[in-house]
Amino acid sequence: MRAFNWRFWQWSLATQILVGLLIGASCGLLVQALGTGARLDAFITNVTAPVGQIFLRLIFMVIVPLVISAIALGVAGMGDLRQLGRVGVKCLGMTLLLAGASVAIGLVLVNVIQPGHYLSAEKSAALEKQYGSAAQEKVTQGGQSVSVTGFLLGLIPTNPIAEAAKIFTAQDDGKALLAVMVFSVLVGLAIISCPEERTRALTAFFDSVFTISLKIIDFAMKLAPVCVACLAFNVTARLGFEIVTTLGAYVVTVMLGYLIHGLVTYPVVLRTLGGKSPIAFYREIQEVIYTAFGTSSSNATLPVSLEVAEQKLKLPPQLSRFVLTVGATANQNGTALYEGVTVLFLAQVFGVDLSLGQQIVVALLCILAGIGTAGVPGGSLPLVVGVLVTVGVPGEAIAIILGIDRFLDMCRTVLNVTGDLVIAVVVAGKDRGGALPPQA
Q1: How many CA atoms lie less than 13 Å away from 112 in the CB half-sphere?
Q2: Which of 10, 61, 284, 366 is the least crowded, having the fewest Cβ atoms under 10 Å away?
Q3: CA pair distance 257, 213, nearest whole angstrom
Q4: How far apart are the first and last CA of the chain?
C-alpha cells in the first residue's frame, strides 16, 4: 500500500481547493457557534476578505477580453459558411437548440425548487451587508421599464469599448455584457465573411488574447485553495450551518437539470433527428464520459472524442473533426444550464426578484456565454460573474458556490462533450452528402 502524501502542495488542485474549503468552512462554523461580534467583523474586513478578493479580482479582470476573444473565435471557427452549406448552418442551429433547451430546463427547475429561498431573510440580509450595496443600483435599473425597441437597439452598441467599460460599475444598466457578446458574435461572423488571408492576423490576435486570459485564470486557480478558505470562512462565520442546507438544495437543482438534459433531451434529439438509438449511443461513448468526468475539460477530452466518433460511432472523419473541434468551445450547453441555475440561485439568495423579461435576458446571456466558455476546468467562472453583475447580484457572490464548483464542473463537462457527439451524430445522419470543410 502506497504511503499517504502529506505534502499539501503536491496534491491535485481540486484536492487543495476542497481541503481549503473544509478548513475555512469549519473554522467559520466554529466561530459562528461561539458568537459573532465586532472583533469578527474587523477580522473579516481586514484579513480574510482582502485575501479572498485577490482571487476574485484576478477572475474579474479577464472577463471582457475572455468574452470577446472566445466568442469571436468560437463563431469564426464555424468556417466559411458559403462552403460549409447546410452542414455549418445545421451545426450552429443544433448548438443553439441544445443550449436553449438546457437553459430552459435549468430556469424552470430553479423557479420550481427555489433553492435560494432556503436561506432565511435574516441571513440574506447578512449577505447583502457582507457583499455591499452596489447591487441595489443595478436592481433599480433592472426594474425600470424598457420598450422592446429600446431593448433590441441596446443590444447593438454604438461604442463597444464604452459598453465594456461599464461592466462592474454603477453605470452598467444590465445590458453591457450582452451588448459586448453581440459585438463579439458580429466580429466572428465578419471574420467568416472575409478572405482568410485578410483576417489571419486578427484571428491570431484573438487567439493570443484568449490564451493569455486562460493563463491569468490559471494564476488565479493556483491561489484558489487559500482564497477559497478565506471566502468560505467569511460566509459560514456569518451564516452558520444554514448556508450548507441552502447549497445542498442548489446542488440537487443543478444535478437534476443535468440528468433531465442528458437522459431526456439528448435521447429525444438522437432518436428523432439523428436516427440513432440512445442506448447504443451511450454504450459507445463510455470512454468519453469517463475521460470528461475525470479531467473536467472539454479540450482535454477532445482527442478521445475524435477517436470514439470515428471508431465507435462510425462518423465521417472530416465531419466529426470539424463539429467536435468547434464544439469544444462553441457547444457548452451543460455549462449554459449550470450558469442559468447559478445566476437565479444567487439572485434568490440575495433577494433579487427577477421578472420574466429579466430571466429571458439571463437565458440569452447564458446561451451566448455557453459559446464563449473556455473548455478548461473553472472556465465558466468569469462568465458567471459577468452575468451576475448584469442582473444586479454582486460578483463576489460567486464565492458562495466556489467550493462545490469542482464536482459540478466534472458533471457538466460530461454533458458538454456528450452534446458535441450528439450534434455530430445528427449532422452526419442528415447531411452525409452535404458540403464539408476541407480536411486538415
Answers
A1: 11
A2: 10
A3: 29
A4: 47
Q: Which three cell numbers stand for residue 359?
A: 430571466
Please give the domain boundaries of the chain with CATH numbers for all domains.
12-430 (1.10.3860)
Predicted TM-score of the model (pTM): 0.63
Record the cell numbers describing residue 73, joined without a space. Answer: 473565435
pLDDT tens, residue by residue, 285-322 = 888 888 777 566 676 677 678 778 888 888 887 677 66
**CA 256 to CA 246: how far, in whole Å?**
16
Residue with the three cell numbers 473541434: 325
Q: How many CB atoms lie under 10 A from the CB of residue 245?
A: 12
pLDDT band at 92 (very low <50, low <70, confident <90, very high): confident
What pLDDT does 435 receive? 43
